[in-house]
Amino acid sequence: MTQTPTDRRHLPMAGLTHGNRNPVTCHLRCGDACSFTPPNTTDNDYFRDVATRALSRRRTLGLAGAGAVALGVAATTASPAAARPGRAIAGKPGGKYPHTKPGKPGKPGRSRLLFTPVAPQPADTDSVGVPAGYRWDTIVRWGDPILPGAPGFDASDQTQESAEGQFGYNCDYLDIIETNSKGTRALLVANHEYTNEEIMFPPGTDPETVVRVALASHGMSVVELRRARRGDAWSYIPGAPKNRRITAETPFTFDGPVRGSALLRTAEDPRGVTVRGTLNNCAGGTTPWGTVLSGEENFNQYFLAAGTDVRESRYGLGPTQDSRGWRNVDERFDATSEGYRNEPHRFGWIVEVDPTDPSSTPVKHTAMGRFKHEGANVIVNDDGHVVAYMGDDERFDYVYRFVSRKKLRKGNSPGARRHNLGLLSEGDLSVAKFIGDGLEDGVSDGIGRWLPLTRAGRSMVAGMSLEEVLVFTRLAADKAGATKMDRPEDVEPNLVNGHIYVACTNNTDRGKAGKEGPTEPNPRNANKDGHVVEMIPHKGDHTLERFRWNLLLICGDPGTAGTYFGGYEGPVSPISCPDNVAFDSVGNLWVSTDGQPSSTSRCDALFKVPVAGPQRGRVQQFLSVPAGAETCGPVVRDTDGEGSVFVSVQHPGDGGTWESPTSFFPDYVTGSAGRGEFKGPRPSVIQVRRA
Ligand code: FEO
Ligand code: CA
Ligand code: CA
pTM here? Predict the structure, then answer.
């Protein structure tokens, strides 16, 4: 059922939409970002000759893609993964690979997660589609009590206090960090990106209660899990000692060069060193030292701002934002008020949380720059420096890299731990320039350079101080001449081959009047399906200035002009709008999607894609999420007897309301829904494993 703006009761609605996403999703998650002019109006001089040649190159790609055909229901049995590792990168255990044997990273093997690809399911299908022989179980849902004493879910009687003790709304980034060698205890860490008040609250709910519950339902959760044996389904433990909620009210500390800067000071924090809360936490990454990084993404939508200064408008801050009316409850969300001009400067950072210590104060790392952070993913370079890769998810924005000044200290001693917790506080920030090498070689590829923004604690951008570079990083990257990308979401190193994969989700503005046209790394006008870039560090060294790159996937329906699947000529699944990426133990890429083009009318999904060997580029669909939902935070575990995939099912049933839900995931309750009579969808973390 399609809602119109006048149907809304809890929020002001623009009623705008983009692609096949429900207008509610566009409004609540990104503040209708795609409905506004992209904030990057600079004219970064991309190599226009290359861009021109890229147009003719698309014909070549079309031919390459024409050999691939869609996978139907009766697709052939998947062959084992054929990943051949490139240069193995030593010394980076942990992260999403707790089972990777130290000293043997990149050992080729056969993924245990074999499956027959599933067919795409129609967009209104309200179920989770998994391969034959697999089943899915819910681990934790919005509203499940996690802190001691938290009340059970009762959607008709929500308070700030109850929400602060329960699993938050719209889970996004996800990791399952095992905490014992038997694989029977773990910490689940999830982001809660945004809230959908139209589904969450019955009509007539007091507006202040709506805001206060929404503040408490943003942020992150840490939840202890247990199970009898490795490979079984996980259960969460209500009230466990390490369970934690981080919300839009939780105190954070700033560290790094901008801590204490005048640019961070407000009436509430005249020293510029602490901030209440984290907002719009999208993707993230788990570090080798066991902490979780989380990206503050579309923070602009929570603020009222004048928008007259480029330092605001370049971030989408302006008078037409303020989509939730939070300033009516808390003045700090009114950036036009004298005391809170700088409040938006206190969001848009990478935050680091130690899930093993519920009393720790989470940190916002100013050395890593401020933009609409999708997330951050870390790899340890051969020399021990820690390198984080990050995307700025906006049309025509950039890919960034952070290299720590200090090196990782091995071991888990208190001293090593203290040291490693400071690794992201100091280092060099740079932004990517992708240079196409022309079309004569028949592939979309080339070389690239990391353009320095900060180095050794100094600004590398003329006319901007170090603090300005880090707070107004988009402006610094504009000046440096970075390459405008098609909404870079996850940017994640593959620990098996050491390459970095960039999910460019889409950009339907490319080629529009007055905007940049196709370039070799972003080769399509009106790019509705997105693509995946593969970056290869020079000499396998993540700290050097140079890299090579190529497009692994140019997404869309196989057989349509312009698509490309790594050169694979056999059947592949259709794929659009790549968003989050993960890797299995042999280095296969797993890609989740967000928002299928309206022409396709299918649910979002998760795909496996080999990146090496004869099956490089063979896209195989593993699961579908229910109507209205997005697939987020995939985690793939395929070693030591485990064969599980975990995903956050975010915003199921967006577009429905409390009274008229369009999804009933995950409980599919009929008749009485019990307490509160809530029958609608509950964003949840699920585990998919062999039946
Ligand atoms: Fe929150 Fe860029 O997805
Ligand atoms: Ca080329
Ligand atoms: Ca995302």
Answer: 0.90
